[in-house]
Amino acid sequence: MSNIDPSARVEDGAVIGDGTSIGPFCIVGRDAVIGANCRLISHVNIDGHTTIGDGTTISPFASLGTPPQSTGYKGEPTRLEVGSGCTIRESVTMNRGTVSGGGVTRVGDRGFFMTGSHIGHDCHVGNDVIFANTATLGGHCEIGDFTFIGGMTVFQQFTRVGAQVMIGGASGVRDDVIPYGLANGIYAHLSGLNIVGMRRRKFTKQRLVVVRSFFDELFHSEGLFADRLERVRPRVGEDPAIAEIIAFIDEGKARGGRHRSLCMPADGGSVVD
Predict the structure, then answer these.
(1) Which CATH number covers residue 208?
(2) Tell me: the pLDDT tens digits for 72-92?
(3) Residue positions annotated with a catalytic role
(4) Is 121 within the bounds of a domain?
(5) Global confidence as pTM
(6) For the chain, how long is the longest CA-to-CA vector?
């Protein structure tokens, strides 16, 4: 059974899982669904159609499922879905989606969201991510699995970040970052591959050599980027990471209209399709 502090306000209709504790002065709205064995420490606000997965811990003054910060939002019953095993620290904010953006903001499992980080409306965030203090996503961003985002880093809306990316602190990200990329800077540029993260994910030395060679050929060889991309396409079978990077680039192009240009090395400019 759940344990609810007498000072907390849990509205009729809210679903609270077994073993969940709701601490002092928390507010849980009627449309919330909170899984088993969660812990809302104190002063937590859960609003709207919000689902929290099992085993998630939420620290004081976090506010989840509040309306999207969008002038086009007219009160529609959109959603926020947070996965299992997440750690959500003090003053984190996550907004629910908008109808025009698909209606749902989605956060995966086992995420660690440090103090003051923000997930904007209609964002899709993968599993096993880490957001350092005040990392901020504009609306409609996509963040891949195992990505680390440094403190005080901000993302322009509609930005995509591939899996296993590392973004340095105090960066401004306004372009799509390829899977396994390492990016940083006031206007973030691609500074290499996230070798440390790749090693942690059990990439062998041989795989690292292959992927590094591909990266150098794609981003640092001669010619226009479009020509270099076609030149490296035959390497897609050499390693799954290469296939993933090429697929990520192709997906951005296929989206047309609102997709971002590709984050490039500082000496390579940006790619605008």
Answers:
(1) 1.20.1180
(2) 999 999 999 999 999 999 999
(3) 121-122, 139
(4) yes
(5) 0.96
(6) 68
